[in-house]
Amino acid sequence: MKLDIFQVDAFAERVFHGNPAAVVPLYEWLSDDLMQNIARENNLSETAFFVRKGEYFELRWFTPEFEIDLCGHATMASAHVLCAHMGYEDPAVVFVTKSGRLFVDRDEDGMYSMDIPAWPVKEIQVTERVTKALGARPEALYANRRDMMALYASEQDVRGLKPDAQLVSQLDGVCLICTAPGEDHDFVSRVFSPGASIFEDPVTGSAHCGLVPFWAERLGRDSLYAHQASERGGDIRCENAGDRIKIAGRAVTYMTGSITL
């Protein structure tokens, strides 16, 4: 059996930037074990699989270690594969996922815009475990349904963090998000998720489910321009819309190929 596979850099203007995701279009679902093994072999932060079901697509995401319930950059990458490589011409792609229906629009200029859930955060106590794991005490600590978020005073504080991977992996949540006001952007962030085998995620769409409503309230406006300050880096245009958010960026294809099983 051969399967098509694409590797796409999402939230990127050119290759070697943004966040790489593998995308595997399917005619029917493979076993969970086989999809997990493919994701482990790819060894990227996420591998996306989708199956067409009439007018929409069922979409699932796997890290090298486990399936997750939401991944922004691999959703954008999947829409890019459909539009750029599979002749999909409708103005919007509808994905059905474990986080509900997700909508991705592509404009004439090649910008992808995703409509995904908002996950508001609640403040929790700053602990010594978090401080030691990050190597610098945050001003405040927050949590939502899946992740923790540490707030720092400046962009340079976030860029200068040198977390301890072992200590971070012992914390609760899927991701530990670190954020601060930006110098050239409304806010910046870095995202660590060692439990998923990728210590620092380059650009994390799902992290903005909490970041966007937080910064929209803090800054008093709903349109925001964000930057994830990883080594690869990536810019994200954000819109707060109550219980939903929109995040937008570009995507470029790095590689196409086939999997032989």
3D architecture notes:
The chain is an alpha+beta fold and 261 residues long. It has two domains: 2-117 and 247-260, Roll (Diaminopimelate Epimerase, Chain A, domain 1), CATH 3.10.310.10; 122-242, Diaminopimelate Epimerase, Chain A, domain 1 (Roll). 21% of the residues lie in helices and 42% in strands. It is built from six helices and 18 strands. The chain has helices spanning 32-42, 72-85, 128-134, 155-159, 165-169, 208-219, and strands at residues 2-10, 19-26, 47-53, 56-62, 67-68, 92-97, 100-106, 112-117, 122-124, 140-143, 148-151, 176-181, 187-193, 198-201, 223-228, 234-241, 244-249, 251-260. The chain has an 18-stranded mixed β-sheet that branches. Strand 16 (234-241) and strand 17 (244-249) form a beta hairpin.
Topology:
Layout: E1 2-10, E2 19-26, H1 32-42, E3 47-53, E4 56-62, E5 67-68, H2 72-85, E6 92-97, E7 100-106, E8 112-117, E9 122-124, H3 128-134, E10 140-143, E11 148-151, H4 155-159, H5 165-169, E12 176-181, E13 187-193, E14 198-201, H6 208-219, E15 223-228, E16 234-241, E17 244-249, E18 251-260
Tell me briefly what this model is.
Keywords: Isomerase. The chain has helices spanning 32-42, 72-85, 128-134, 155-159, 165-169, 208-219, and strands spanning 2-10, 19-26, 47-53, 56-62, 67-68, 92-97, 100-106, 112-117, 122-124, 140-143, 148-151, 176-181, 187-193, 198-201, 223-228, 234-241, 244-249, 251-260. With 261 residues, the protein is an alpha+beta fold.
